[in-house]
Amino acid sequence: MLVEYTPKFISAIVVLVIGWIAIGFVMRGLRRFFNRVHLDPALESFIMSFSGVMLKIVLLVVVATMFGVQTTSLVALLGAAGLAVGLALQGSLSNFAGGVLILFFKPFKLGDYIEAQGVSGTVNNIQIFNTILKTPDNKTIVLPNGNLANDVLTNYSTEPFRRLDFTFGIGYGDDIKLAKDLLEKNVVKDERVISDDPDRKPQIVVGNLGESSVDIFCRVWVKTDDYWNIFFEKNEAVKEAFDKNGISIPFPQQDVHHYYENGTGPTDI
Question: What domain range is 9 assigned to?
């Protein structure tokens, strides 16, 4: 047995090492090819991951046949094992199919900011079974592709423009026209706000008469890339403008009445 199997073992090891190195060359060649043809990064990542797994499986089959394992027997064994693994890993197969659907229908791409399954983040990588998100505070979230392909998903980066909604509450005794003029000056007049598109006109209206405030809605359209910068800047700018012009931003209040035991009447506190 030693005389019979030692040459086969050495040959198999040599083939395994050479094959592993060859797979590395093939994968690097594929990457260079994809870079030349400017393939979609998400599709490139998926194909690279899938090709690497398949090439390694083929290499292991070749090495096994060098030990005298019959190809037909090996195929039958792999088929039986594949069936068992398929039944055990139905979720993984669903995730694989989900990955294919994501790459085909493109509900999102690398770099998009999405929200799904109760989490949100920037798409960092699309793999065979999972999609990797990076949160703004640099956490890594792994989402199964099957769930992404078959559930509700919100993509915040698809459209080049987004509507930015502000709600500013002022007191019932404050000047509504003055407040609207201040919003016009501090929000709408910003050069980053879109004001020349008839379908995206800014809007400043009294949107709600609340329990303790008059709520003014200010809705403007901005480029998606400018959304958060404008949101933070204008909240601060409007607060400062309201303070300088005597416009109050009320908060909920309660009137408490105290009654004397002898029934003489209430007193306000």
Answer: 2-88
